[in-house]
Amino acid sequence: MNCLDLRLLLLLQLCSLIGGQRKLQRIIGGHIVGPHSAKYLVSLKRMTGSHFCGGSLVSRSWVLTAAHCKTEINQMLIVAGEYSLSTFEGTEQIFRPSRMVVHPDYSSTTKNADVMLIKQGATVKEGRLCQVSGWGYTSPIGGRTSDTLRSVRLPIVPSWKCNASSSYAGFITSNMICAGLSTGGKDACQGDSGGPLVCEGRVFGIVSWGHSCASPRYPGVYTAVANFQKWIYKTIFRHQ
């Protein structure tokens, strides 16, 4: 499967220089990960500082996320090097977006082509089970966003199974990937939207939508990044 290779595209060394020295909306049923173990992940925040979506770095200055995360460009902050949402650790780098490009086929009704690229106003310093990470709800009922970054491993679910009458009944398009357990219990959730589904070091999907969170027979639905690779490259190179 032809997907974005994080080893080639992501510049993951998101460490800040302090005093001249280098300092080191969907996750349910997962576990807390070590600080800065998913360095390609960014937090999209409102100007008030509240987290609302995730995203992943696909170049030095571009973030890949879900189109449904779009908000007013002057009301968004991009935070790289984040771990705890409530604690300033000295590794955070905060940027204002300079451009947001939503895929032309995106539908807010069907969530088809739920993919968007955000160009940062400044460049981030270099720094088949799949893994999804984020700061989203940790419970499907009455959940709260997680203060610290969490991660969960999920198996890819075949499209035919995801589209079965007992599951999404034909609503899964060729631009979508399903990942999760048939018994539920592990999933992404609100607040994880826009974050990456990473398989073997590559971004396969973007957290997009689902039936509630961690529900049996209803795996999480992700934007199939491979289908938008040409658009991603074309957009990045056009606006260099």
From TrEMBL:
InterPro entries: Peptidase_S1_PA (IPR009003), Peptidase_S1_PA_chymotrypsin (IPR043504), Peptidase_S1A (IPR001314), Serine_Proteases_S1 (IPR050127), Trypsin_dom (IPR001254), TRYPSIN_HIS (IPR018114), TRYPSIN_SER (IPR033116)
GO biological process terms held by the UniProt record: proteolysis
This protein's name: Peptidase S1 domain-containing protein
Pfam families xref list: Trypsin
Protein keywords: Disulfide bond, Hydrolase, Protease, Serine protease, Signal
Family annotation (SMART domains): Tryp_SPc
DNA repair listed as a keyword: no
Statement: the UniProt record of this protein carries the keyword Metal-binding: no
SUPFAM superfamilies noted in UniProt: Trypsin-like serine proteases (SSF50494)
Molecular functions per Gene Ontology: serine-type endopeptidase activity
Organism: Alligator mississippiensis
Gene Ontology CC terms, in alphabetical order: extracellular space
Domain Peptidase S1: 27-237
Signal peptide span: 1-20
UniProt superkingdom: Eukaryota
Coiled coil ranges: none
Family to which this protein belongs: Belongs to the peptidase S1 family. Snake venom subfamily.
CDD domains from the UniProt entry: Tryp_SPc
